C-alpha cells in the first residue's frame, strides 16, 4: 500500500493538542509528509476541531489544566465521531497531576494507538513507577510488556527505543530503522506521534499503518543524517527528507522483523 501517496492525495487534517515545545516542529513535519495540521489547546474549540479532523493527537508535554480539559473533550468527541485518537503520555507518572490526567484519559477515551518511549511504556505496564522527564531511562522495552499494555488498553503500542516495538497485543514487529541523532534533538518522538495520525487515517489496518510510519520516520532520519553535520542541520534535513520521501524508498530501506 502506498501510504505516503494516499496521505498526499487526501491531505488529512490532524488535530494536535500538543506541547508548546513540539508545536512548530510537528506541524512542519505533518505538512512535509502531506498532511494538514490544526493546533489548538483551548477546550472551547476541542469539539469542532475533533469533528473536522481525520485524526486527533493528544500529547502530554507542557501539561496544563486547560490542555487536559481540551484533551478529554477532543478524545471523547473523536470516539463519538469514529476518528482515530493517538496518545503520547510524556513523562508518564512524573507528577501526581500528570498521572491523574493520563489515567483519566485512558479510562474515558479509547485510543487507536499509544506512542511512547520504552520507559513510558514500562510505566504504563506498571514496571517503572514514573518517568521524571521525556528522556527514557531504558533503551529497550521487553516486548511482552508492550504487548500487555496493548491488550490492557485495546490499542496499538509503538514503543520507541534502540529497536522500536510495535504491537497490537497479538502481532508484534521490531523496527531497527532510525538514527541516534534523533536523541539529540527535542520533540523527535512528538513528531513521530503526530505522523501516526495521517498514517492511520488512510490505512486499513492500524497495526500495519503503525509499523509503516515507524519505519518511514526511521528511514527519514537515516537519510537526513547523510546530509547533516549535527543537531542544528539535522532538523531541516529531516523535514526535507520527509517532504521528498516516497513509498518506494521506504520499501527499499525498511528493516522489520516479526516476532
Automatic annotation (TrEMBL):
<keyword id="KW-0460">Magnesium</keyword>
<keyword id="KW-0479">Metal-binding</keyword>
<keyword id="KW-0784">Thiamine biosynthesis</keyword>
<comment type="function">
    <text>Catalyzes the phosphorylation of the hydroxyl group of 4-methyl-5-beta-hydroxyethylthiazole (THZ).</text>
</comment>
<protein>
    <recommendedName>
        <fullName>Hydroxyethylthiazole kinase</fullName>
        <ecNumber>2.7.1.50</ecNumber>
    </recommendedName>
</protein>
<feature type="binding site">
    <location>
        <position position="115"/>
    </location>
    <ligand>
        <name>ATP</name>
    </ligand>
</feature>
<dbReference type="InterPro" id="IPR029056">
    <property type="entry name" value="Ribokinase-like"/>
</dbReference>
<feature type="binding site">
    <location>
        <position position="160"/>
    </location>
    <ligand>
        <name>ATP</name>
    </ligand>
</feature>
<keyword id="KW-0547">Nucleotide-binding</keyword>
<comment type="pathway">
    <text>Cofactor biosynthesis; thiamine diphosphate biosynthesis; 4-methyl-5-(2-phosphoethyl)-thiazole from 5-(2-hydroxyethyl)-4-methylthiazole: step 1/1.</text>
</comment>
<comment type="similarity">
    <text>Belongs to the Thz kinase family.</text>
</comment>
<dbReference type="Pfam" id="PF02110">
    <property type="entry name" value="HK"/>
</dbReference>
<keyword id="KW-0808">Transferase</keyword>
<keyword id="KW-0067">ATP-binding</keyword>
<keyword id="KW-0418">Kinase</keyword>
<dbReference type="InterPro" id="IPR000417">
    <property type="entry name" value="Hyethyz_kinase"/>
</dbReference>
<dbReference type="GO" id="GO:0004417">
    <property type="term" value="F:hydroxyethylthiazole kinase activity"/>
</dbReference>
